[in-house]
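Researcher: Batch entry, complex prediction.
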Amino acid sequence: MLIINLIGLGLIVLIIWWFWVYKPQSTQVSDEQGDNSEITVVVKDGVYQPARISLPENKAFKIKFIRKDASPCAASVLFPDLEISADLPINAEFTLQLPALKKGEYAFHCQMKMYSGTVVVK
Amino acid sequence: MNKLTGDQLRNNTQDLIIEGAGCASCVGKIETALKNINGVESAEMNFALRTVSISGNVASEVLIKAVENIGYNAKSASDRSDDELIDEKEVADEKYYASLMKQMWVALALGMPLMIYSLFGGPMTVETPLERGVWLFVGVLCAAIMYFSGKHFYIGAWKSLLNHTANMDTLIALGTGTAWIYSMIVVLFPLALPEMARHVYFEATAMIIGLINLGLALEVKARGKTSEAIKRLIGLQAKTARVVRDKKEIDIAIEQVLLNDIVRVRPGEKVPVDGVVTQGNTSIDESMLTGEPMPVVKAEGDKIVAGTLNKSGSILFKATRVGKDTAIAQIINMVKRAQNSKPPIGRLADIISAYFVPVVMIISIVSALVWLNFGPDPVLAFAVVSATTVLIIACPCALGLATPMSVMVGVGKAAEAGVLIRNGEALQTASKVTAMILDKTGTITEGAPKVTDIIVADESYSEDFILTVAASIESGSEHPLAQAIVDSAIEQNIELENTTDFQAIAGHGVKAMLNGQQLLFGNQKLMLKHSIALNGYVNKAQALAYKAKTPMYLAIDNKLAAIIAVSDPIKSDSIAAIKRLQAIGIRVVMLTGDNRATANAVAKQVGITEVFAEVLPEDKSNKVADLQAQGEIVGMTGDGINDAPALALANVGFAIGTGTDVAIESADITLMRGSLHGLSDAIAVSKATLRNIKQNLFGAFIYNVAGIPFAAGILYPFFGLLLNPVVAGAAMAFSSLTVVSNANRLRLFKPQDH
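Model: Structure tokens for the complex:
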């Protein structure tokens, strides 16, 4: 019983670490392209891929969303801090222009917050 | 240059719409520029349609860039219109619905018989080798169903797990997966478990997957209805336009209409793009856009907007805004943006959603441990049931949907009534407004004043001369009162003269030189400032003001020459609209730069007791701040550029849609028609939406938060009850449906009739 309890507690610690403590690596967007920096994010199977995008400060850039998920939650993407929202067509590209951003983390997510990602400006 | 992906490359013919090609010689230039690109095989331009057809293996971005480099604008003709996007969305939704229903039936085909068998007392235990064989077969069948009907949950859960996020798929996958794995352990290794724990839960797995798919399918259907308002707005746009090109009238797709094209609209047709009438006159029904039922007469020089309906005459007009720049396209955009934004009340649900799934996973583990340590026999079975039920019932999708669904319907409902709400925050704040400031000119009144009286003070001047001088000096001013004087002079065929040294003195009037004479034209303050003797004319001016007219003094060479009175009629429905606001307990205040007597006279007519008169433009925002300091939540309604700071400072700024673009830009809410009834409508919709959001949040919390303790088994020690995972699955599936359906109820809401 002790072992089962320890396994349970271990699982709880693992959940906390996996979902809240661990910061996954972000996909770096190169700034060589100046204001034309662009990254493609695929919306599929309940996630944005990549979900963590890192880019340099004060550079405008574009995110090209390709939605391959028919679920209605995936149909819109919101950047609450930037007051941006967009409808994503299914099985098609949709390019969203983001303004030059200051250092910080900017979350983006679907309407239900089930799909979520972060733009990290360094 | 951007690196192009394989998807961007098209190995076929594509069309571009060219803008700015005004002469036939442009054709060769554009074709040559395109043909010079590597990969372009041919480029042929249709000058009449301003389209160019290109064949070759080149991305449209490269082609557009090449056209732009030689000084023209180009866009892809294949860019889908809103209409097409909506159609595509509907087709995709229909397909998704059909696949969910199929998955649901397959899952229920196994789940239902098992469930009925269990309800009628069929043993769900593994005791004999025969039972083992049968349950093994059912288990394998259940795995096949999990693959066919529930694959999307498991893939989604796995992908989000790798991404360090958890979502509804995570809970469903964990819940159904736990039930299936436990049941398979029972089947494969029955002797490893105590006799009482040899119970299988295959029916739960199949039923949960089936019911959740059903819930999702019904949600897809219900969601389609919530965006009806936007569909209706998009449906207002015409699909084709009849343009005059090369002296011929041709019908072309709406996307191909270019700026400055001359467009023909015949009776019964929709106006395809925004423009200015160049020939003919007609009456236009703008009700679909503004909610105003009466058609509006339009003649040469009048603006018309896309989406409105031409009722009577055939007119020609010049296109001034096309494509995404038309007013209707911008309105659709604004409504879409607002529909996707969240009011502050939604943030609570957001915060909860972000932490919810991992917290539920932890609760599920804790619940299993509690049952294992302190539960009655068979502890293992109880632990599995409670852990599974907690995972299934707690899916937070209803919580996440509660706010956006209501906002979507509420904002759309407001748009139908001619009220454009910019964002969710404005929607929420509008429901709490306690004081409403109304600008006078153009808001309470028509904003189209007319000269009513000319009182000459110096007999050496004629009325015509006074009007000539006043109109000449005012022709440089943008003030609505100035426009009234200029219009009056034009009506009387008076020729205006050129003034020099024109100077507008904010809140006072204007100053200029004409034929060597110094002219001053404005209010009493301006006269006092320049020490002009007004003698008995102050009383005459007061008498005019008491009749709700605005008197203005004209001084020539520092001597009073005349008083010109201008009156701005009150809008026909202002009195009723103000009464509606007062009836719901809102303190209505009038704000104007006009003189006190005129302001009071207008206020009396419309039933307002609080008036801020003679307010300088820069002080308008101070009045907003004053009311805020008194604890009021202030709504400010205005139409002019000078109202912009006050509109921006107010808790909610309401712009009159017939006013200036600056005012509309500064406001949170725009009333598309001039009527103040839009204010009460906006507040009513806002209150109804907030009420709906609260109902949704309550419903979602009940399902999610209250459901968890029951699922964990809190009732067991008192009543011996433990929630069945199937019941939890049904509750979870229908929680979203409840929320979406309740939001749909808002579609039936009607702001009070007026």
